[in-house]
Design a protein that fits this description.
Chains A, B: Pfam families: NUDIX, WHD_NrtR. Chains A, B: It comes from Rhizobium lusitanum. Chains A, B: One of its GO terms (molecular function) is catalytic activity. Two copies of one chain form a homodimer. With 231 residues, chain A is α+β, with helices and mostly antiparallel strands. The first copy, chain A, folds into two domains: 149 residues, Nucleoside Triphosphate Pyrophosphohydrolase (Alpha-Beta Complex), CATH 3.90.79.10; 62 residues, Arc Repressor Mutant, subunit A (Orthogonal Bundle), CATH 1.10.10.10. In chain A, the strands form two sheets. In chain A, strands 1, 2, 3, 4, 5, 6 and 7 form a seven-stranded mixed beta sheet that branches. A three-stranded antiparallel beta sheet of chain A has the order 8-10-9. In chain A, strand 5 and strand 6 form a beta hairpin. The longest helix of chain A has 18 residues. Chain A is elongated, with a radius of gyration of 20 Å. The termini of chain A are far apart. Chains A and B meet through strand 1, strand 5 and strand 6 of A and strand 1, strand 5 and strand 6 of B. Chain B binds a DNA duplex (30 and 30 nucleotides) through helix 5.
DNA sequence: ACCACTTAGTGTCAAATGTCAACTAAGTTA
DNA sequence: TAACTTAGTTGACATTTGACACTAAGTGGT
């Protein structure tokens, strides 16, 4: 009979991350160059094994990988899904529990100039990167970008790609770049007001050579709010 | 170091199913009574281990469990997510890869009168069943019902709870019962026409004592279509 | 034959929404 | 202080949406 006590029956389980950041050039994803054998030398999504002695749950494992491999504490983490079959890893039947993380350009630049040689940001064109990826990570990345893009339409998720304080103009620009089309300013502001997930920060403003803009921040305990309608 | 070769480091992995059917009384889920030790005698979502020698991938494993435990081939199967932590299973760090399946009342009645003693349909009130569930299956069931209910709002998913041929009135009734509110007939029909995922079946009609209704069926390769807006 | 009844399916119109464009506001630079 | 740039608001108009009434097509009773 099959039981969990037949250890060799258990599939291999990894936790992999699609870490997204938005830079002036577009959307980028963090990739790691594999140093060990299956697909050694190829680029892959950063990932790791579950530490059954250290990780309380799956999200904790994902956050640990995020910190270990990328030195990042992401404001936003969401499970994308599980990908598992007999052939994706030559070592045997394996699962990838995949999360996507959104980080702001602040955190981004911290690592961008760093001395990490095995981790690098790569631009996403369409729903893929230029370089071939290890395992079935191209498929997984496609699923993650699809999830991100589809949620942009009807949620407040893109706010996590901005620094803690931001203007409404910047927020609109993020939506526009993710959606690939321009939005109406007045309609956009009306929606954001109705959604009621950001609040003005008093006293502050910024920028140069023109009228300063009101700064906003995400309201506490409002990390993702869904719109009634498409923006 | 941790590697997949340290077999005892691997978490236990099961594939569990939330199988839904809609009966006149409301939404029901198929539960299995556990015969073996962890939580023996308790009700649980039907599930099984991955057979690394037989299952091609996760969905194949889910379909096998569906056939083995419930004798059902579901028209619709969707991954809900992975639930994993150190404590949910007393045997150790474990994962549940959860799928939800939607079946039509036809398939339902086939099993309802059957001689299965360890599998039973239970009504869902709110997002839970009356009886306490093994492991964290109450949490998992809550996630599955939430997924089902949220998708009703903006997708064609509820067709899978109907038999192959159905009328627009029946389809509207399914939406109304899942949403818990009544819908406008003309608006509903306009939406369904725009979504363009069902087609009339020629010549046929049915019912008694009033005007017969046109029968429809799901268009091929259109199992789930998303609406632009909430219905 | 005809009327009452039931459900199927369509049409209408006011209200809400999205689009487009102009307008005012508040800063910087020359 | 005038020109310029971006922030933020306001209003007119076309389009879409939702509530409701209407017509259509059957059955069954008298």
């Amino acid at each position: 009979m099959n039981s969990p006590e037949d250890l060799y029956q258990r599939p291999i389980v990894s936790v992999d991350l699609a870490i997204f950041a938005l830079v002036p050039a577009g959307l980028e994803v963090l990739l790691a160059c594999r140093g060990t054998d299956p697909f050694a030398g190829d680029w892959a999504l950063p990932g790791g094994w579950i530490h059954v002695d250290k990780d309380r749950d799956l999200e904790a494992a994902a956050r640990r990988v995020l910190a270990d491999k990328a030195g990042i504490t992401a404001p936003y983490l969401e499970q994308v899904g599980v990908f598992g079959d007999a052939l994706r890893d030559p070592r045997g039947w394996s699962l990838s529990v995949t999360y996507m993380a959104l980080i702001s350009p602040d955190a981004f630049t911290l690592r961008h100039g760093g001395n990490v040689t095995d981790v690098a940001w790569r631009p996403i064109s369409g729903d893929a990167v230029m370089e071939p990826l290890a395992f079935d990570h191209a498929t997984i990345l496609r699923a993650a970008t699809a999830r991100l893009r589809s949620k942009v339409e009807y949620s407040t998720l893109p706010v996590h790609l901005l620094p803690e304080a931001f203007t409404l103009g910047e927020l609109q620009a993020v939506y526009e770049r993710l959606l690939g089309r321009s939005l109406d300013k007045s309609a956009f502001r009306k929606r954001m007001a109705e959604a009621d997930f950001i609040e003005p920060i008093e006293g502050e403003m910024r920028r140069a050579s023109n009228r300063p803009a009101q700064l906003y921040r995400l309201k506490q305990a409002r990390s993702t709010v869904f719109f009634d309608r498409t923006i």
